Amino acid sequence: MVIATILTSSNTCNVEARDLERVSNATNNNEMQARVSNWQGGLPLEVHCKSKDNDLGVYTIADNENFLWSFRPNIRGTTLFYCNVSSQTYGVAKFQAYNHHRDKMRCTSFCAWLVRANGVHGFNQKIQEEDMLIQWEKPAQNGPSLALN
After folding, report:
1. Which one, 6, 32, 38, 46, has least CB within 10 Å?
2. DSSP secondary-structure letter at 139?
């Protein structure tokens, strides 16, 4: 089962300080949590995330809001969630929000993705810093598309 919520935050406080408390219960249940945060600086962000079995839907989140979901990785180690995010100003970015093979050591209980003007930044829970950057793709002539293939 996957549970998705949108969280509102009045400021962009420290990722590890704010979120480690939320994930402490998840660790006890072998659950993972993933989060996409809109830190573009005042712009809305459309988010569409899904796995092979779970389409979490399309959401528009305001600046400083978060799209958060929890899940249990499957026993085969093949869990994969991917997301498309769309900004009218910057375009579309496509990324794997959780890939068990990549993230089993990187995100031991929590994967955070911070959407900024220069792209989508991946936060490494183990080393407590950002370690990935996914660049924006230029929008198509008729605007960005969130279609997940």
Report:
1. 6
2. P
